[in-house]
Fold ABC transporter related.
Amino acid sequence: MNAVVVEDLTMRYRGHTALDGVDLTLAPDTIHGLLGRNGAGKTTLMRILTGQEFETSGRVEVFGQPPRENPAVLNRVCFIREAQKYPQNFKVREAFAAAAIACPGWDQAYADRLVQDFDLPLKRQIKKLSRGQLSAVGIIIGLAARAPLTLFDEPYLGLDAVARHVFYDRLLEDFSENPRTVILSTHLIDEVADLVEHVVLIDHGTVLMDADADGLRGRAVSVSGPAEAVAAYVEDAPVLHRSGLGGQLRVALAERPERPAEGVSVDSLSLQELIVLTTNQGDGK
Ligand SMILES: Nc1ncnc2c1ncn2[C@@H]1O[C@H](COP(=O)(O)OP(=O)(O)OP(=O)(O)O)[C@@H](O)[C@H]1O
């Protein structure tokens, strides 16, 4: 069974369409990267999947059932938001105690290890934590909850690079021992490029890309060299972006052409470059 099935999903706020006929199927036991510019509709989609928002129209199923007011689904879901709120007078340990009660799959021993990894002061009040420490609380809850569907919405505001990599490492390690469906929304595309197995790119409420990360890696290329040679080499290939200076041309292609390159350089595009160019193309830039 798929973890998530969304058909023709539309979400309209007064005067604004945040999601516009989205079709999406997310396989179980996979780390999905949910990418897109500010305001693209990522949080709205995650709020609908977790029953915090009700769609205007369309079909939404999580583990085969609609999430809307459905404890059978919602008990299997953990959603960690960018600006996750906790009762302000709680100490860190009390936030974890509350999560342990709310999350059926909670692993206290694992949470304790993560507290050490992130060097979190358990006895400190939540309101006294630094921004990064607050993010670490959310990340620890999201990991130790071991929810069958775990959603992280930009979970690392204020978290330094070392701590972010602790998060990626722990997520990958724990995922291999306890596979589950993870949806990670992020703007740090390069950092998660090797972590995510499937990429969904949303732009202006529609899905621009829905592809396996392995298939994307090394598929998109940049071709550069003398303008004439580049133009001949790229021929009818679908062009993502074109830029030139003097007699030189650089063309980004979604697919690496099969013919051998002659007189041009062909280099793989990073996932980040591919996402930026695909988004710009979708925006008509
Ligand atoms: N309650 C609301 N009322 C009106 N408009 C809303 C509401 N919630 C979201 N929107 C709008 O819907 C669009 C999608 O918002 P959403 O929060 O889903 O974007 P996002 O992709 O998560 O962006 P970011 O990366 O900045 O977090 C935005 O234009 C936003 O302003």
Observations:
- The pocket of adenosine-5'-triphosphate is lined by residues 13, 16, 18, 36, 38-44 (CB under 6 Å).
- The mean pLDDT is 93.
- The radius of gyration is 21 Å.
